[in-house]
Write a structure and sequence with these properties.
The protein is α+β, with helices and mostly antiparallel strands. It has five helices and 17 strands. It folds into two domains: about 1-30 and about 320-360, no CATH class; about 35-305, no CATH class. The chain has a five-stranded antiparallel β-sheet. The chain has a five-stranded antiparallel β-sheet with strand order 4-6-15-8-12. Helix 4 runs antiparallel to helix 5. The longest helix is centred in the C-terminal third of the chain and has 13 residues, at about 245-255.
Length: about 375
């Protein structure tokens, strides 16, 4: 039996396809994905400068303070973390982990406080109305976002605790701008984090890993613009992001800990109580909340991960034309690190040489 497939040929900085025929076909080598579901996070922390009960809150508000001096634009963030080492082998190298499903879910604690917005808003809609670049928002709210995280002050995914300080060597009661020890971040192909907490005033061109989609108890998605009931599930498909976000997830599987930040650019006035304007932003259950414990409404994570060899880019146990299609996309982008087989943060001819060897073998050998 012969297997028809396309053979890649490397030219200087370019890939082309030529038709070819391989020798006798190899036996299939299916990879059984690892499924892991977490009903409670290892940690969840309301990262807000006026939070005086770090790690013990019954709810976590997320809201913005756009362009307010001494406060970040994404003023209130909800940081959640899951230890995945019990189900997924750690420390095997990033490319071993092919993530087939990654969904984070959180649940709304205060009902009818804000309206559902499932769509991205132009950053310029949060600029001052006097800014010549300002554009009006065409819907009544802002989406709930999830981001990778970055760290300051010696913190990292391995030593972060629920009671870790909001910032080191500062007083957030007087200045909480650009100092938080854990922050929502945009990551590049080398996984260097850029703090997006002040994205509006800095006019940073960054987008979240995913936007929340909201579902009622029957699994029906809410109507955009509708008031959001208590107990609504907010689900983030973590695979919506770009290649750098995917690499962030792979690194998290390798390290055994996934940390994410939930935020929004929905503004508020008067602090977490809403002041005279009332609560117009999401408030989410934490794992410490008694109702969340009784009704299974703590933050949750669902994963499906193929644990396989580096060149098996689709996670099916083979290195074949499907993997080559993924490789070509990454190769053409150069900064797409999904096929960075030699770990230099780019996908180039050096990676193609490694991929070609694996492609000829067809089946994962290590």
């Amino acid at each position: 039996m012969f297997v028809q497939r396309f053979r890649p040929l490397a030219l200087t900085g370019t890939l082309v396809l030529i038709s070819g025929v391989t020798g006798p076909g190899h036996a299939s080598a299916e990879v059984a994905p690892i499924s892991a579901n977490y009903s409670v996070p290892e940690l969840d922390r309301w990262f807000y400068p006026f939070n005086f009960a770090a790690g013990a809150e019954a709810r976590a508000s997320v809201f913005a303070a756009p362009l307010v001096p001494a406060f970040d634009d994404r003023d209130s963030q909800f940081v959640v973390g899951f230890d995945v080492r019990g189900a997924i082998p750690a420390n095997s190298g990033r490319l071993r982990y092919k993530i087939l499903k990654a969904e984070l879910s959180v649940f709304v604690e205060t009902g009818d406080a804000f309206r559902y917005d499932p769509t991205p808003d132009p950053l310029a809609s949060s600029y001052a109305t006097t800014d010549p670049e300002y554009v009006p928002d065409t819907d009544p709210s802002h989406p709930i976002e999830v981001w990778p995280v970055g760290y300051r002050g010696g913190l990292n995914a391995q030593n972060l605790q629920e009671n870790s300080p909001f910032c080191n060597g500062c007083n957030p009661l007087f200045n909480a701008e650009g100092v938080r020890s854990v922050f929502a971040a945009s990551v590049d192909n080398a996984q260097s984090p850029t703090d997006v907490s002040r994205q509006i005033r800095q006019k940073l061109p960054a987008r979240p890993m995913a936007l929340g989609r909201l579902f009622d108890g029957s699994g029906v998605e809410l109507t955009p613009g509708a008031l959001v009931p208590q107990g609504t599930r907010v689900t983030f498909n973590l695979l919506e992001g770009g290649s750098s976000d995917y690499v962030y997830l792979q690194n998290a599987m390798n390290e055994g800990v996934l940390i994410l930040a939930i935020a929004t650019l929905e503004p508020t006035t008067g602090g977490p109580g809403g002041g005279t304007g009332g609560i117009t932003y999401p408030r989410l259950y934490t794992k410490e909340n008694a109702t969340a414990q009784a009704l299974n409404l703590a933050p949750q994570l669902a994963l499906e991960v193929a644990y396989t060899c580096g060149a098996d880019l689709t996670g099916d146990g083979l290195i074949d034309d499907l993997d080559f299609q993924v490789f070509v996309i990454a190769y053409n982008e150069l900064l797409d690190a999904r096929a960075d087989l030699n770990a230099d943060t780019i996908t180039d001819d050096a990676d193609f040489s490694l991929f070609a060897i694996a492609y000829d073998a067809l089946i994962c050998e290590n």
